[in-house]
Amino acid sequence: MYQNILFEVKEHIAFVTINRPEKLNALNHQTMLELKDVFTKIKNDDEIYVVIITGAGEKAFVAGADIAELNKLDAVSGREFAERGQEVFNLIENLGKPVIAAVNGYALGGGSELAWACHFRIASENAVFGQPEIDLGIIPGYGGTQRLTRLVGKTKAMELILTGRRFTAKEAYEMGVVNKVVPQSELMKEAEELAKVLASKPQIAIRMAIKAVNMAYETTLSDGLHLEATLFGICCGTEDFKEGTSAFLEKRKPVFKNK
Fold first, then answer.
1. CA distance 250 to 100
2. Set 34, 133, 190, 192: catalytic member
3. Pfam families, alphabetically (predicted)?
4. Quick check: pTM over 0.85?
5. Does the annotation count 113 as an active-site position?
């Protein structure tokens, strides 16, 4: 079905694996097209609740963009290149379903930017992050200057982007950009356990929560609070809300129908 990614669905969880281990899972044009296609399908599939994305092999999540393709860009094609990548990562961030990045090695350049676009990041102990674009005479183009700054703050983002230095999973965790660091042998198990927890929740409320939290960085406090109240009201009109509150009062486990 795809040349450069693997895709399967089990128990409402989609597994997306970037499958170019011989290239350290670098994001070439074909891979980006396939990511756009598969995440569009996931967005439109009501039976998929959660996504786990990872890289094939044990060395890399995504080691960056394809440098051979980058080398051919000029001012016009460079902007178009960045906008195409941003479109894919915006799709992931605004999917309305939790996306877990299982970072299993190098996550450099576009690999880090892919991780920043996800809602959760679980890293193996050998994971390495970085935005090294400065050493190629460019800047991050798939959202790195914006999402990393929102995650770590302006001061730290300036340091990481202007120096291009790599940082470990431990440092990423300490900076608050990684939810958990685990041995590589436990990475997918940990990601699946989180995915199962998320899949068990009422999915309309999950979708509303993602939208509200994402908007916190895009708007004023007053506008954000207005959106929160609106989305809260939508949740109150669902069958899941009635079931959740009734189950709480009746001291039983809720059975959500995602309606």
1. 33
2. 133
3. ECH_1
4. yes
5. yes
Contacts of 126 (CB under 8 A, 6+ apart): 58, 105, 169, 184
Local structure of 13: helix, strand or coil: strand
> In the structure, what pLDDT confidence band is assigned to residue 102 with cuts at 50, 70 and 90?
very high
Query: Which of 80, 87, 113, 243 is flagged as catalytic?
Result: 113
- How many other C-beta atoms are found inside a 10 Å radius of the C-beta of residue 216? 12
190 catalytically annotated: no
Sheet holding 120-124, edge to edge: 5-10, 13-18, 50-55, 99-103, 120-124, 180-182
Which domains, and CATH codes, for the chain? 5-199 (3.90.226.10), 202-250 (1.10.12)
- Mean predicted confidence (pLDDT) in 203-214: 96
- ∠ Cα 107 11 255 (to 5°): 120
pLDDT > 90? residue 217: no
Q: Are strands 166-168 and 180-182 parallel, antiparallel or unpaired?
A: unpaired
